[in-house]
Write a structure and sequence with these properties.
With 254 residues, this protein is α+β, with helices and mostly antiparallel strands. It has three helices and 14 strands. The radius of gyration is 29 Å and the shape is elongated. It comes from Lentzea miocenica.
Length: 254
Amino acid sequence: MRVRMTGLAGVIAIAALLVGAAPASAAPGDASAYGARLNVTLLGSPAVNAEPFAAANANGPTQNTFAGVDLTGILKTGVINASASRDEKSGGVYSRASTADVRVDLLSKVTGKISAELVEAECAATQKGLTGKAKLAGVNLGKLGQVNADPAANTKLDVQLAGVKIAEVIFNEQIKNNDGSLTVNAIHIKLLQGVLGAIGTGDVIISSATCGPAGLPIPMASGAGLWIGLGLLGVAAAPVAFVALRRRASLNAA
C-alpha cells in the first residue's frame, strides 16, 4: 500500500520530526552568594551558629544587603552585599559577595586582630567552564603574615600556638563540589579539632560565591523559536506543494 502525502501533511510530518529531534532543555544552572557564615564552638563558651548573612540566589532574592555583623570576640563587619543572576538564553550564571570593614577577633590572642577594608568573592559559569576569584583590600593580618590583594587559589596560612597548629586561614578557597559547581570563599578560618592547645572548633567564612555548572542554552527548536522555525518551514514548503498539486491535476486531465 502506497501512502501519498499532500504538501500540508508533509509540513506537519516534518514538524513532528523536528519536535522529536529537538534536544531536551535541561534546567538552567544555579548560583548563590552570602557575606558571612559562622559555626564556632570555643572552649568554655556556648556554640555560635549564624546563618548566612545577606544570602542571595539566582532563583530569588537575586540581591541582598545586610547592615553588618557584630559578634563580640569573633567577628565584626560593615555592610554586606550579595547578588546572583542567571542568563536564561545562554544558561550562564554569576554570583558575587562583598563584605566591608571586616575585623576578626577570633584569633586575636594569638595573631593579633585580622582586618580588611573589603573582602570579595565572585564566580561565573558559562558553556566554556567555571571561573572564580577573590579580592582583598586594606588587609592587616597582624602576626599571621601577608597575603596578596588577589591571592592565588587556596592560599593558606597556619596559626600556631606554642609550636602547635591550632587553626588555618585560607584565602580564595576554591572548592569543586560533587554536583559540578564551584564555591569560592574569600576567607575561610578553620579551627582545628583534637589538637593540643586548641581554642575551639568550627568555621568562619567571609564572602562566599557558588556557581554552576551552567545550564543548557535555550535551543532554537523550542518555545517561540520552534513556532518561528515551523512558520518559515511552512512558507518554504507551500510553493513546492502547490507545484506538486498542479502537476498531479495535469496528469489526471490527460
